[in-house]
Amino acid sequence: MDRINPYYAVMDVRRRFREAGVHRKDCFRKIKKRGDILRYHGNADEVGCFVAGRPLSRRNRYYEVTIRDTGVRGMIAVGLVPQFYRMDQQPGWLPCSVAFHADDGKLYNGSTVGQKFGPKCCKGDKIGCGISLDSDNGQLAVFFTKNGKKIGRVEVDISIDWLHPAVGMSSFGEEVAVDLNAEWEEEDDGKMIVDSHEEDWARFHDVKVTGTLLEYMGKGQSITDVGLAQARRPLSTRSHYYELEITDAGEKCYIALGLARRDYPKNRHPGWSRGSIAYHADDGKLFKGSGVGDPFGPRCLEGDIMGCGIMFPHDYSLDDDVDDWDLEEPSEVKNDLYEGNEDEEEKEEEEDVEGRKVMVFFTRNGKVVGRREVVLPEGGLYPTIGMMSTGEKVRVDLHPLSG
User: Fold this and answer.
1) Is residue 198 left, alpha or beta, with left meaning phi > 0 and alpha meaning psi from -120 to 50?
2) Residues 308, 362: contact at Cβ < 8 Å?
3) What percent of the chain is predicted at pLDDT more than 90?
4) Do 109 and 225 share a structural domain?
5) 29 falls within a domain
6) Statement to judge: residues 42 and 136 lie in one domain
7) What is the CA radius of gyration of the chain?
8) Can you give the residue range of the structural domain that contains 326?
9) Residues 262 and 148 in one domain
10) Per the domain annotation, does 187 fall within a domain?
């Protein structure tokens, strides 16, 4: 006979109480509560936990926690848990719970092992947590904010009735203010909140988007297993530069940042085919319409910020308000990386004679690495990011110079 996991057995019993209409008030352990203020009141490294009696719902979708004091270690967690959660465990550590931790910026999703997710938080920062529902597949997701700006989101396979606001603390002096009635401004006609930044992108291939985070979802076994993300609008005189931060280098850091024509093949790394140029993180080489790169700059590692922009001539004009990207998927290309490169280079040389040239430049951690002259294809050059090895993740800012 299979042994029953005692944790799930208890959860099932408590779920039955919940369905029978048995509710409870806010619950807290190793925490002093005075109004909306929660203060850690345990011994060193003991977990203090607060769980709200009322879960989030379609009417009450969001709450916020303001850090009043980080205490000794700032081990503050903000998230969602089942109503009858173990109070000696940080939110996010046990199944059916998820939380963002302020001290390391990691997301804990039913595990004591966190995933890189967002920035660390300190005194004065406001952490928000809410729920959204994907309008296409109906999948429930939990999203987090810092000071009113979306950090990211994660899909969860949890009943909406189990998502109770929860705060965890673990060191002397930690103190927060909880607003269980906070409102999230980005609401859409009665729908649950949806703000994944997908509207900024024209298409994805083997790439998952979570807020501004792009994650490689391909096999990573051959040169055609490219994960590609291309922006909806080209660089222009009004938005001439963009950046990415390597949040996880994955197995081999096969990450490429560059520009490409809008019908660029989905299974070719940026820079490999005609009408594209890209700076590759793994070897620091520049690829310009060819599978053979030229030495260009330093390699880029986890934590580095890569940038790409265009220096437009003063008399240049490009319509920035183009229609939504409505081309059909580009045709498949041949699998051999180097096959056809000579022909592509010849075509590029022909275009160089007739087309208009602009200067494309690349940066690393705010410093210019180098620049190359290219010919603009019809319609302009679109921010294009490629990834090709398991575990790669980047955080993208398509408008870093705005605001």
Assistant:
1) alpha
2) yes
3) 60
4) no
5) yes
6) yes
7) 24
8) 198-397
9) no
10) no
Same domain, 126 and 202: no
- Do both 228 and 100 map to the same domain? no
| 1 lies in some domain | no
- HEC letters along the chain: CCCCCHHHHHHHHHHHHHHCCCCCCCEEECEEEECCEEEECCCCCCCEEEECCCCCCCCCCEEEEEEEEECCCCCCEEEEECCCCCCCCCCCCCCCCEEEECCCCEEEECCCCCEECCCCCCCCCEEEEEEEECCCCCCEEEEEEECCEEEEEEECCCCHHHCEEEEEECCCCEEEEEECCCCCCCCECCECCCCCCHHHEEEEECEEEECCEEEECCCCCCCCCCEEEEECCCCCCCCCEEEEEEEEECCCCCCEEEEECCCCCCCCCCCCCCCEEEEECCCCEEEECCCCCEECCCCCCCCCEEEEEEECCCCCCCCCCCCCCCCCCCCCCCCCCCCCHHHHHHHHHHHHHHCCEEEEEEEECCEEEEEEEEECCCCCCEEEEEECCCCEEEEEECCCCCC
23 pLDDT exceeds 80?
no
pLDDT at 17: 44
As given in the structure block, the two tokens for residue 112 are 């004591």
Residues 166 and 54 in one domain: yes
The pTM (predicted TM-score) of the whole model is 0.50
Which position has the token pair 């940026």?
270
> Both tokens of residue 295?
């030495």
Q: What is the mean pLDDT of residues 43-58?
A: 89
Domain membership of residue 142 (yes or no) is: yes
Number of structural domains, the chain?
2
One-letter amino acid identity for 201?
A: W
116 and 24 assigned to the same domain: yes
Q: What CATH code is carried by the domain that includes residue 282?
A: 2.60.120.920
Same domain, 165 and 240: no
